[in-house]
Amino acid sequence: MRPRRAATDLAGVLAIDKPSGLTSHDVVAVVRGATGEGRIGHAGTLDPLASGLLLVLVGRATRLARYLVGHDKRYDARITFGTTTDTLDADGTITESVPVPPGVLDPAYARRLLESLVGSHLQIPPAYSAIKTAGVAAHRRARAGDAPVLEPRPIVISEARLVAVDPDAPSWDVTFAVSKGTYVRALARDVGRLAGTVAHLAALRRTSVGALDLGSALTLDAALDSAREGTLPSCFIDPVPLLNLPVVHLVADEPRDGSPVSTHAGEQSDGDRVALLTPGGLLGIYVASRGVLRAETAFVPEIPR
Q1: Exposed, middle or buried by CB within 10 Å (0-12, 13-18, 19+), for 93?
Q2: Is the CATH number 3.20.20.150 carried by domain 73-209?
Q3: Architecture of domain 245-303 in CATH?
């Protein structure tokens, strides 16, 4: 029998190596069912096609989501030329087929084109995305046959490196390092256009989020086994490095109930955020204001590190 979806005392962040074929919501639902904890979320959606690093938030740690979604990310991608789809990836329906110029399969050409992508851009998101227009998600409009008009969004590509060319596919294997909000499916579309043909994203694997990489990740099966064995807390990663915030250690006699504290407050400027720590873990995200640190998001009890 499955555990009830009641609140537990579980609190932490799991680094999961999501398998291809599952949505991020599927992973959340599976972890919820295995733990009995109703408060499960994630930070940074992965499409069903994609595999790789997904941050799953458990218990009161779900309140960390807003602080964990702004990281740069790294991906291994396969871009296949000659066809494009309505979703811009291999899960979609082919909407166009175009010949592939022979030069596209020249590794030197591929490297030059990819190097030209490094820098700041305005990217038009895919029609099949969660971005809302007039309160309706773009993918719902697209499925209803109403092509949504999405505004370009600023992105930064800090790396676009060729790994291999497969003439038979025909495709490129590429490593991308990109800013928050970048759609790699849209990068595949744009690479196809720049190459004088069309393209779609054939495979995608997220290999890092901020400073965290797949070396810290569990398979989903391993996480579920641990949940069933009651050892899941030993699998939680330290969330503090992911916050990218100054760390302040609470003085012993200061309150731990979310009340304002004076610990090192004079070292911060008004509006500065800090991660406030106790020996027991992360007490919360606090903001300096008028000589004290006030809780923006407090955890009582602390989230263990």
Answers
A1: exposed
A2: no
A3: Roll (2.30)
